[in-house]
Amino acid sequence: MDELSFSLFPNENFLDLRLYQYGWEQCAPLHSYGPTVRNHYLFHYVISGQGWLDSNDQDGVTRKHCLGADQGFLICPGQVNTYCAHKTSPWRYVWLEFDGLRAAEYVDSAGLGVSQPLYRPQSPAQGQKVRDTMLYIADHSDASALHLIGHLCLFLDGLIQSSSTRRQLHGGQLKDFYIQEAITFMEHNLHREITVGEIADVCKLNRSYFSKLFKDSTGCPPQEFLIRLRLSRAAELMKTSSDPIGDISVQCGYPNQLHFSRAFKKRYGISPREWRGQNQIQKKR
Description:
The protein has ten helices and ten strands. With about 280 residues, it is α+β, with helices and mostly antiparallel strands. The chain folds into two domains: about 5-160, Sandwich (Jelly Rolls); about 175-280, Arc Repressor Mutant, subunit A, CATH 1.10.10. It has a six-stranded antiparallel sheet with strand order 1-2-9-4-7-10, with helices on one face. The protein has a four-stranded antiparallel sheet with strand order 3-8-5-6, with no helix packed on it. The termini are far apart.
């Protein structure tokens, strides 16, 4: 018998971290999902039972992973994957789908990624704390967006602290300063054309070194990060304002509305007009 609890997160105004959907499921025997590709990070924690995951590594090779209770698995954006419940002992799991400007950094800190999708806690008790935080989110879909984002932060902190593949990072304060300086500059100049060289100059760093530092810290190149920032800001404006889409595209650094529409659809899967129709907040008169 298959039991399922599923919720969508309604708020698009969080940039550092964003929650998309969450839930839990008691799977039927051999219940499977995929092959498919996700647009965001998707983490499952196995509460009981067993199952397996097929996922592509960095070289495109599909690898099979068997999992049991108090283990978990991560699916990264763009990664082809399939997962399936055991025939006689089907798993029960809880999941969170999340993303954001710092999501890649946090996932990497836990030692997880495309080539290392399996989460094993350092102790059962630590793993169960991660599980309980995830279940709290799944069971409180009526809580405020800020409340749920707070628990998403607790989940990621627990994931990093408990992971047996956790990375020991040192000397990151100066690096973090440069990255924050770059992001702040981008946020203040979304309305105009910005080059990577200009951002590097603001940080007083060599362009090549800055680009590598930025990608290592955020998981994407500066130019791609800037595009995501522009489109996130555009989505926020379309949701909360009545400004014409053409005006919003200019405010977010896209003087050509056609280019904006193409970039937006590539990121969100639908046109700006369709997205606004589904998400715009209707102000009370």
